[in-house]
Amino acid sequence: MRVTASDLRVTIDGHVILDDAALTAETGAVIGLVGPNGSGKSTLLRSIYRAIRPDRGAVLIGQTDVWRLPARKAGRLRAVVTQDQELHNDFSVQDVVALGRAPHQGLLDRETADDREVVAGALERVGMTWARSRLFTTLSGGERQRVLLARALAQQTPVLLLDEPTNHLDIGAQLELLDLVRDLGLTTICALHDLDHALAYCDELVLLRGGRVVAAGGPVDVLTPQRLTDVFGVRGAFTTHPLTGRPHLVVAALNPADPPNRRVDADSTAAPTA
Ligand SMILES: Nc1ncnc2c1ncn2[C@@H]1O[C@H](COP(=O)(O)OP(=O)(O)OP(=O)(O)O)[C@@H](O)[C@H]1O
């Protein structure tokens, strides 16, 4: 299902932290949100998953304005894995994943055989079946992350929103999780810090800086060497990955002699130059 966000502005305590933000995620596409710390990636995601109400703009999933829906109905359209430390004291892993079924249940409904099957399937998909009876709080950070992804899968939504899903994961687990996310075939919007992962796993990128979208489109077109310098203050170049044969991004610090160009201006939003 297609996701469209248009003209979003978010103001907190009188400060505009997201302005004029827009994106389109076509059905089944994986869209990466990239940008330096504090550029507004999480805020854009939050305004899409209804954690922060934008004071302007709209978010549509299909034809439905998510901000005009009751929370439970929104929970059938999109699932979220955030960076927030969720503790779930006294919950087993299975209980945590079962929370994903809530949007499909009435208030007093008991868990059905179908719910149990979906929960078991979600745990299996993320390779955490072995931990189903463990207390969630006893898992490592990476294991928790996989369980939270299983909870999102148990929601059985057409849209998945992920905020830095590879946090806490070792390098093998990062690639495994990103492969899994790609294989799901869901419309996915994912904030990522690792630009090479963004390049390898996303169909399109939205580059943010200072709460504004400065470029959007194919990863190679968005992550131009000029933008890597302007937005991230690094030098960058594409090469061919020696193992996969795919484009690979390498970065290095700016030469001390190169003044970092930290402007956001019309040049940053112009068509790619490289
Ligand atoms: N509740 C809040 N109150 C005040 N300022 C906030 C709040 N939430 C976000 N901000 C500010 O808005 C800006 C964007 O934050 P956001 O978390 O969206 O950035 P980000 O790109 O996700 O950053 P990071 O890569 O560090 O996670 C930051 O300057 C942040 O301090």
TrEMBL record:
Gene3D superfamilies: P-loop containing nucleotide triphosphate hydrolases. GO terms for molecular function: ATP binding. It holds the Pfam family ABC_tran. Keywords: ATP-binding, Nucleotide-binding. It comes from the Bacteria. PANTHER family: ABC TRANSPORTER ATP-BINDING PROTEIN, HEMIN IMPORT ATP-BINDING PROTEIN HMUV. This is ABC transporter ATP-binding protein. The lineage of its organism: Bacteria, Bacillati, Actinomycetota, Actinomycetes, Micromonosporales.
